[in-house]
Amino acid sequence: MKIHVLPPHVARLIAAGEVVSRPLDVVRELLDNALDAGATRVDIEVEGGGLALVRVRDNGCGIPADMVVLAPARHATSKLAPEEGAVTRVTTLGFRGEALWAAAQAGELELVTRPAQQVGAAQVQAHGEELRVSRTSAPAGTTVTVQRLFAHLPARLRTQAPPATEVREITALIGRYVLHHPGLHWRLTVDGEARLTHAPSDHRGAVASVYGPLSANRVVGVDAPGVRGVVSRPELTRARRDRMHFSVNGRPVQAAPELEKAVMEGLAELIPAGVAPLCVLDLTVEPENQNPNVHPAKQVVALADLAEVASRVREAVAQALAGQPLARGAPALRPPTENETTPRHSSFPQLTQVGLYQDLYLLAQGEGDLWIVDAHAAHERALYEQLSRDLTAAPPHELPEPELLHLTPGQLARLHERAAELRGWGLTIEDFGAGLARLRSVPATLAALPVPRLHEQIVEAALGDGPDPRRDVLARLACAPALKAGMLTLQLGEQVLAALSSCEQPWSCPHGRPTTLRLAERDLAHAFGRRGVRDVARGRDAAEPPVMPGR
Q: What is the rounded CA–CA span in Å between residue 260 and residue 263?
């Protein structure tokens, strides 16, 4: 096969596809340019799914008239110094100098720009190799319009997604920019209709604009070195991780699995397995410790020390939730309007038992509210923390005769990974070959537990696929002896409340189910049609008004 150099006009069409393959790419690149220009207001217009028109208007610094002719030139940029090594210290969202050039190759580009101190604006019209520069009048800032995208590339035009699909993706993209840049004015208009607006606020306000005020009222702030944003309380979770958002130095990115895992571990036992929280986390790293030049759309950022960043995320999330009143609201008797994000107490409240229900639930009162306590979950939490405290208090219990175990290939692989960690807290399992292992010792505090198939359950949990074998073992063993339905009495209820109040994290069992629900007296009064003194806000109703969306 003969090797030949592609003609320039063919090479340009291929290269343009690397940066602009769909309207979403145009929007992303223009948003990056607007933010790099220091804009505080960004307006986006889309027509025909972006194929007919994409327009981004900002009030940023603008481009001087004597430089505007270079704006649509390939690899022409003001964001990266023309020196070796500059690409390893990227401090802007854009840096390749290809966005406007690729848009002009794929469609018809118009650029109107004026720095605030300049008299009159410059207008650039570019399509392919055609370029016209003229003077016009315009407010300070830059407006970029791309029309008839791929009109001269019929093959690429036929492969575009339907307009409704593209609009959905564009709306989701702009929502992410709003979440990570909440201090700006944002407005998205689709075919003349406003789809998303946001006024300057904080991360909670951005969550309200994108996901609604009910979600915003269920997030708490995260503020730690290098990690800022919000994470949802345990009652706000989803089966998917599509609302876990991260940015690196202001750039919205596809999160590495290690970062998502760090958030889940920061929540620890507060949420059950198989669900994910909502989070918006802005990560800050040194420019030389991140590389955004590993993905055509810059959606993936390589981090020099991902493990250290993940550790910071884990600690920041855990710290944000520590001391929060994490009791979940009982099923609402009216549309919920309470704001439960501002902590009023850093510890579990003093509860007075008033009765039992179905020999499983404790009814108590405290802080002016009615509390419903799941005795099994509460007892399980107390046992879990007791086992955690006592786990290494005594030397391991050596089995008189090592127990021979049959392990699956997956369990054997995890044994090789975790053997040293397991020995550290008294569990000694040795590979015996041929799919067998020997159990030689177990922690003394676990050895005497009245749990059926004790050794089998310990090994199954320790070599399971969970990320924390110690927690998995203790959670399983705390569940078995905990109070079950029909076992609860008033006397045991008092003991459960006392044990729960002394827990470090009393709000959920080790598997993430809530231990308590609370119902405000005001909710009851409204449900019964009462007014007057019983209509006074107490308990959680006395909190500050909920956040409203920036609309």
A: 5
Tell me if residue 387 falls in helix, strand or coil: helix
Which two tokens mark 466?
Answer: 């969970």
Tokens 């029909």, residue?
Answer: 486
- Coil, helix or strand at residue 518: strand
pLDDT tens per residue, range 464-507:
888 788 988 999 888 888 888 778 888 888 888 888 888 888 88
Closest CA to 201 of 233, 230, 161: 230
> What would the pLDDT profile of 305-352 be if each residue is shown by its tens digit?
899 999 999 999 988 888 677 766 554 443 333 343 333 334 678 888
What single letter denotes the amino acid at residue 504? E
Gyration radius from the chain CA atoms = 29
Cβ atoms of residues 460 and 469 within 8 Å? no
The residue whose two tokens read 């481009």 is: 63
Cα–Cα distance for residue pair 298/521, rounded to 1 Å: 52
- Helix, strand or coil for residue 148? coil
Which residue, 399, 472, 393, 474, is CA-closest to 430? 399
Strand-pairing partners, residue 146, are 54, 109
Measured CA to CA, the distance from residue 321 to residue 235 in angstroms comes to 13
Residues 6+ apart with CB under 8 A from 104: 72, 126, 127, 128
Distance CA 147, CA 149 (A): 6
Averaged over 382-389, what is the pLDDT? 89
Burial readout 189-213 (b: 16 or more C-beta within 10 A, e: otherwise): bbeeeebbbbeebbbbbbbbbbbeb
What does the DSSP assignment read for 267-296? HGGGS-TT-EE-EEEEE---GGGEE-TTST
Say if residue 124's pLDDT is above 80: yes
Give the relative orientation of helices 163-180 and 23-36 as an angle to the nearest 10 degrees: 20
Q: What is the pLDDT of residues 505-551, one digit of tens each?
A: 888 888 888 899 888 888 888 888 776 555 555 555 555 455 554 44
Cβ contacts of 11 within 8 Å, gap of 6 or more:
none
What burial letters (b/e) apply to 248-266, b meaning 16+ CB within 10 Å?
Answer: bbbbbbebbeebbebbbbb
36: CB partners within 8 A, 6+ apart? 60, 79, 92, 93, 94
Residues 6+ apart with CB under 8 A from 117: none
b/e 310-332 (16+ beta carbons within 10 angstroms → b)? bebbbbbbbebbeebbbbbbbee
H or E element at residue 45: strand 41-47
Sequence-distant (≥ 6) Cβ neighbours of residue 129 within 8 angstroms: none
The tens digit of pLDDT for each residue in 47-74 reads: 999 999 999 999 999 999 989 998 888 8
